[in-house]
Amino acid sequence: MIELEGVPELIDPVMVAAFEGWNDAGDAASAAVAHLHREWQGKVFAALDAEDYYDFQVNRPTVFLEDGVRKVTWPTTRLSVVRIEDSDGKGRRRDLVLVRGIEPSMRWRSFCNEILGFAHELGVEMLVVLGALLGDTPHTRPVPVSGVTSDTDLATRMDLEESRYEGPTGIVGILQEACTHAGVPAVSLWAAVPHYVSQPPNPKASLALLNRLEDLLGIRIPQGELTEDARAWQLGVDQLAAEDSEVAEYVQTLEEARDTADLPEASGDAIAREFERYLRRRDPQTESGRTWPRLPKEARDPKDAGSEPPDGPEADGGR
User: Residue 285: CA atoms inside 13 Å, Cβ hemisphere, count?
Assistant: First the structure.
């Protein structure tokens, strides 16, 4: 570990990590962590030694000029800290430790041990890893985000899935397994990215991950320009799909399959919960004991509901 600055004293810290590469379809997960760093003006305090974990023929360093001086940036994983001055609308301070980098090329166990060593030193209470996978999901519907953990108690307490995936995995799966053995509570949040539009960026998937992270941690995340970026992204994909009749037909097929699968979830209570989450993200009084208005009967009746059902989990996809 290369320490860039002194390790700060943190308040109720949670570590949030994302890695470019196999676990990051559309760069959605890494972009979400970058958004947190940017919006809360994160301060980098440490970086892993690139020599230990990266094959530079796979992830090449880049050369740039700064004030006429030639410099090199090496691929690595950096840690930064952000302080949320008002995390819950009641003035509560909280810190996030952000881990952002590239999936390592080698020595994954040592890589995870370094991350966990830092988590222990900083008193991290929980580790949340963000990921994104390619799936048969239409770009016109809410992005499915599933929360997965290997901790039975955590799954029950936070309404998460217990991981049942078997097969090839990436650094996200290995890091979560390392957390399990180390006794560190860990959660993976996975966004499903349409496989027919997998090229980055995908701000809609990044926004969905951040919304789920809000619910998981009980914090409010400033969305900045991400909401508008997500809207523009969907409009752009709409236009591309409209220009190709085969793609448009395929998207319609995915929409019908998604809507059919979501029908059992479109209960009045589920719609009400989603509506409350929507308001909570935009009203600071929510956490101060405000009583939510009950939705009218026609909105609670799935047969008459015109709003989209809440996001549901997708396939494990290597988690």
Answer: 3
**Type and span of the H or E element at 230:** helix 226-242
DSSP state of 115: H
Residue count of the chain? 319
Three-state secondary structure call for residue 8: coil
Alpha carbons 96 and 83: distance in angstroms, whole number: 7
Q: How far is the C-alpha of 195 from the C-alpha of 134, rounded, in Å?
A: 5
Of 58-72, 90-104, 225-239, 294-308, the one with minimum mean pLDDT is: 294-308
Between residues 165 and 22, which one has the greater pLDDT? 22
CA distances from 161 to 84, 173, 269, 274 (A): 28, 14, 20, 19
Q: How many CB atoms lie within 10 A of CB 290?
A: 13
How many CB atoms are closer than 10 A to CB 41?
9
Backbone angles phi, psi at 75, to 5 degrees: -65, 130
User: What's the gap between Cα 171 and its chain centre?
Assistant: 15
Omega before residue 201 within 30° of 0, cis: yes
Decide: 214 and 194 in contact? Cβ < 8 Å.
no
Model pTM score: 0.80
| Separation between Cα atoms, residue 105 and residue 52, nearest integer Å | 9
pLDDT band at residue 301, thresholds of 50, 70 and 90? very low
Token pair for 258: 């998604």
